[in-house]
């Protein structure tokens, strides 16, 4: 299993990013959920990963890992902050106009919200990229 993940980690990271992009587009375009400011920031760090990791996967270029790592790291920080804004009422939010960042569109199992899904995606991408580095 470890060999599988280290061999195909770049592919798995790309697959997670494509699923995350598809999920965010589903929530906004089909389900009609209007993204808040923090959601847009998370998208800014997820969407390029689908392209960057897709190209790197096609060429099996493991050097991209160094360039791709800042995206899921920064995206994870934004996701954690967004989760805190949703869960702790006293947290300040950058959403001053439009859709409130504290709003919850989905709440699966009592704790899985859209920022939690984004955080899971960013963590999975980080995991697969780090595992992929072990084979390099």
Automatic annotation (TrEMBL):
The keyword Signal does not apply. GO terms for cellular component: plasma membrane. GO terms for biological process: protein folding. InterPro entries: DiS_bond_form_DsbB/BdbC (IPR003752), Disulphide_bond_form_BdbC (IPR012187), DsbB-like_sf (IPR023380). One of its GO terms (molecular function) is protein-disulfide reductase activity. Disulfide bonds join 36-39, 95-101. Keywords: Cell membrane, Chaperone, Disulfide bond, Electron transport, Membrane, Oxidoreductase, Redox-active center, Transmembrane, Transmembrane helix, Transport. It comes from the Bacteria. Required for disulfide bond formation in some proteins. This is Probable disulfide formation protein. It comes from Bacillus taeanensis.
């Amino acid at each position: 299993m470890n060999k599988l993940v280290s061999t195909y980690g770049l592919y798995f990271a790309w697959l997670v990013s494509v699923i995350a992009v598809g999920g965010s587009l589903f929530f906004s375009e089909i389900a009609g959920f209007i993204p808040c400011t923090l959601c847009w920031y998370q998208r800014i760090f997820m969407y390029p990963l689908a392209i960057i990791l897709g190209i790197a996967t096609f060429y099996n270029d493991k050097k991209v890992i160094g360039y791709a790592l800042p995206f899921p790291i920064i995206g994870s920080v934004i996701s954690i902050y967004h989760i805190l804004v949703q869960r702790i009422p006293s947290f300040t939010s950058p959403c001053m106009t439009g859709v409130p960042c504290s709003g919850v569109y989905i709440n699966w199992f009592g704790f899985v919200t859209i920022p939690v899904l984004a955080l899971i995606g960013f963590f999975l991408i980080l995991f697969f990229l780090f595992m992929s580095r072990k084979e390099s």
